[in-house]
Amino acid sequence: MIEIALDSDGEWDSSGAPWAELADTSLNAAVAESDAPFLASSDRTFEVSLALLEDDDVHTLNREWRGKDKPTNVLSFPMLGPEDINERDGPPALLGDIALAYGVCAREADEKNIPLVDHARHLMVHGMLHLLGYDHQDDDQAADMEARETRALARLGIANPYEEKE
Predict the structure, then answer these.
(1) In which family does this protein belong, per the annotation (predicted)?
(2) 59 labelled as ligand-binding?
(3) Is 126 within any annotated ligand binding site?
(4) pLDDT in tens, 154-164
(5) Which is nearest to 133 in space by CA: 62, 38, 31?
(6) Residue 82, C-beta contacts closer than 8 angstroms, at least 6 positions apart
(7) Which CATH architecture best describes the domain 2-155?
(8) Exposed (0-12), middle (13-18) or buried (19+): which is 128, by Cβ within 10 Å?
(9) What is the pLDDT of residues 93-144, one digit of tens each?
(10) Where are the domains of the chain?
(11) Is the pTM higher than 0.90?
(12) Distance CA 25, CA 6 (A)
Protein backbone atom coordinates (compact mmCIF):
# COMPACT_ATOMS: atom_id res chain seq x y z
CA MET A 1 0.00 0.00 0.00
CA ILE A 2 1.27 3.48 -0.89
CA GLU A 3 0.39 6.33 1.46
CA ILE A 4 1.08 9.87 0.32
CA ALA A 5 1.90 12.74 2.62
CA LEU A 6 1.04 15.78 0.49
CA ASP A 7 2.20 19.28 1.30
CA SER A 8 1.31 22.11 -1.04
CA ASP A 9 1.40 25.85 -0.85
CA GLY A 10 0.83 29.08 -2.71
CA GLU A 11 0.13 28.78 -6.39
CA TRP A 12 -0.44 25.02 -6.24
CA ASP A 13 -3.30 25.53 -3.78
CA SER A 14 -4.78 28.38 -5.79
CA SER A 15 -4.83 26.30 -8.99
CA GLY A 16 -7.95 24.49 -7.74
CA ALA A 17 -6.75 21.06 -8.91
CA PRO A 18 -7.47 18.06 -6.64
CA TRP A 19 -3.76 17.41 -6.02
CA ALA A 20 -4.20 14.66 -3.43
CA GLU A 21 -6.32 12.56 -5.79
CA LEU A 22 -4.07 13.29 -8.77
CA ALA A 23 -0.98 12.36 -6.76
CA ASP A 24 -2.54 9.09 -5.62
CA THR A 25 -3.43 7.93 -9.12
CA SER A 26 -0.16 9.20 -10.62
CA LEU A 27 2.14 7.56 -8.09
CA ASN A 28 0.21 4.30 -8.24
CA ALA A 29 0.40 4.32 -12.05
CA ALA A 30 4.19 4.57 -11.72
CA VAL A 31 4.20 1.65 -9.27
CA ALA A 32 2.11 -0.42 -11.70
CA GLU A 33 4.74 0.11 -14.41
CA SER A 34 7.66 -0.70 -12.11
CA ASP A 35 9.28 -4.03 -11.34
CA ALA A 36 7.52 -3.90 -7.95
CA PRO A 37 3.79 -3.60 -8.80
CA PHE A 38 2.94 -5.54 -5.63
CA LEU A 39 3.65 -2.33 -3.67
CA ALA A 40 0.17 -1.04 -4.44
CA SER A 41 -1.51 -4.12 -2.93
CA SER A 42 1.06 -5.15 -0.32
CA ASP A 43 0.15 -5.40 3.33
CA ARG A 44 3.31 -3.43 4.02
CA THR A 45 2.84 0.32 3.98
CA PHE A 46 5.20 2.48 1.94
CA GLU A 47 5.00 6.23 2.34
CA VAL A 48 5.92 8.93 -0.15
CA SER A 49 6.24 12.57 0.81
CA LEU A 50 5.15 14.82 -2.06
CA ALA A 51 5.85 18.53 -1.69
CA LEU A 52 4.28 20.93 -4.17
CA LEU A 53 6.47 23.98 -3.69
CA GLU A 54 7.35 27.37 -5.09
CA ASP A 55 10.39 27.69 -7.37
CA ASP A 56 12.57 29.31 -4.70
CA ASP A 57 12.11 26.36 -2.35
CA VAL A 58 13.01 23.81 -5.01
CA HIS A 59 15.94 26.00 -6.10
CA THR A 60 17.25 25.89 -2.52
CA LEU A 61 16.86 22.10 -2.35
CA ASN A 62 18.60 21.69 -5.70
CA ARG A 63 21.51 23.86 -4.57
CA GLU A 64 21.88 22.24 -1.14
CA TRP A 65 21.43 18.59 -2.13
CA ARG A 66 22.61 18.42 -5.73
CA GLY A 67 25.04 21.35 -5.95
CA LYS A 68 23.04 22.89 -8.81
CA ASP A 69 22.25 26.56 -8.23
CA LYS A 70 19.07 26.78 -10.28
CA PRO A 71 15.42 25.82 -10.00
CA THR A 72 14.29 22.56 -11.57
CA ASN A 73 10.90 20.99 -12.22
CA VAL A 74 11.14 17.89 -9.97
CA LEU A 75 13.51 16.50 -7.38
CA SER A 76 13.45 13.02 -5.88
CA PHE A 77 15.15 11.89 -2.71
CA PRO A 78 15.02 8.08 -2.39
CA MET A 79 15.26 6.67 1.11
CA LEU A 80 15.30 2.93 0.34
CA GLY A 81 17.34 0.67 -1.86
CA PRO A 82 15.89 -1.93 -4.25
CA GLU A 83 16.33 -4.71 -1.69
CA ASP A 84 14.22 -2.76 0.81
CA ILE A 85 11.52 -1.95 -1.75
CA ASN A 86 11.24 -5.60 -2.77
CA GLU A 87 10.76 -6.70 0.85
CA ARG A 88 7.06 -7.54 1.00
CA ASP A 89 6.83 -7.73 4.78
CA GLY A 90 7.98 -5.41 7.48
CA PRO A 91 7.18 -2.16 9.18
CA PRO A 92 6.00 0.92 7.32
CA ALA A 93 8.81 2.40 5.25
CA LEU A 94 9.41 5.82 3.71
CA LEU A 95 10.23 5.37 0.02
CA GLY A 96 11.38 8.98 -0.15
CA ASP A 97 10.49 12.55 -1.00
CA ILE A 98 9.42 14.19 -4.25
CA ALA A 99 9.34 17.98 -4.72
CA LEU A 100 7.76 19.82 -7.66
CA ALA A 101 8.31 23.52 -8.46
CA TYR A 102 5.14 25.35 -9.51
CA GLY A 103 6.64 28.08 -11.70
CA VAL A 104 8.97 25.75 -13.59
CA CYS A 105 6.15 23.22 -14.11
CA ALA A 106 3.74 25.90 -15.27
CA ARG A 107 6.26 27.42 -17.71
CA GLU A 108 7.15 24.01 -19.16
CA ALA A 109 3.48 23.09 -19.56
CA ASP A 110 2.89 26.40 -21.33
CA GLU A 111 5.86 25.86 -23.66
CA LYS A 112 4.62 22.35 -24.48
CA ASN A 113 1.04 23.63 -24.85
CA ILE A 114 -0.28 21.01 -22.43
CA PRO A 115 -2.35 21.36 -19.25
CA LEU A 116 -0.40 22.02 -16.05
CA VAL A 117 -2.16 19.06 -14.42
CA ASP A 118 -0.91 16.66 -17.11
CA HIS A 119 2.66 17.94 -16.87
CA ALA A 120 2.63 17.81 -13.06
CA ARG A 121 1.33 14.24 -13.19
CA HIS A 122 4.13 13.32 -15.59
CA LEU A 123 6.65 14.77 -13.15
CA MET A 124 5.03 12.88 -10.25
CA VAL A 125 5.39 9.63 -12.23
CA HIS A 126 8.98 10.53 -13.09
CA GLY A 127 9.80 11.30 -9.46
CA MET A 128 8.16 8.11 -8.23
CA LEU A 129 10.14 6.00 -10.68
CA HIS A 130 13.31 7.56 -9.25
CA LEU A 131 12.17 6.55 -5.75
CA LEU A 132 11.71 3.02 -7.07
CA GLY A 133 15.31 2.90 -8.29
CA TYR A 134 15.01 3.92 -11.93
CA ASP A 135 17.35 6.48 -13.46
CA HIS A 136 18.36 7.97 -16.80
CA GLN A 137 22.14 8.19 -16.53
CA ASP A 138 22.74 6.36 -19.80
CA ASP A 139 20.77 5.74 -23.00
CA ASP A 140 19.48 2.30 -21.98
CA GLN A 141 18.30 3.52 -18.58
CA ALA A 142 16.71 6.60 -20.15
CA ALA A 143 14.85 4.50 -22.74
CA ASP A 144 13.56 2.13 -20.05
CA MET A 145 12.46 4.96 -17.79
CA GLU A 146 10.75 6.85 -20.64
CA ALA A 147 8.88 3.69 -21.67
CA ARG A 148 7.67 3.16 -18.09
CA GLU A 149 6.62 6.82 -17.83
CA THR A 150 4.76 6.63 -21.13
CA ARG A 151 2.88 3.48 -20.07
CA ALA A 152 2.03 4.98 -16.66
CA LEU A 153 0.75 8.16 -18.29
CA ALA A 154 -1.32 6.13 -20.76
CA ARG A 155 -3.02 4.54 -17.73
CA LEU A 156 -3.97 8.08 -16.71
CA GLY A 157 -5.20 9.09 -20.17
CA ILE A 158 -2.22 11.39 -20.77
CA ALA A 159 -0.48 11.50 -24.14
CA ASN A 160 3.12 10.39 -24.59
CA PRO A 161 5.19 13.44 -23.59
CA TYR A 162 8.18 12.21 -25.62
CA GLU A 163 6.33 11.92 -28.90
CA GLU A 164 7.15 14.63 -31.42
CA LYS A 165 4.16 16.84 -32.17
CA GLU A 166 3.37 17.71 -35.76
Answers:
(1) Belongs to the endoribonuclease YbeY family.
(2) no
(3) yes
(4) 999 999 998 86
(5) 31
(6) 133
(7) 3-Layer(aba) Sandwich (3.40)
(8) buried
(9) 899 999 999 999 999 999 999 999 999 999 999 999 999 999 998 999 999 9
(10) 2-155
(11) yes
(12) 13
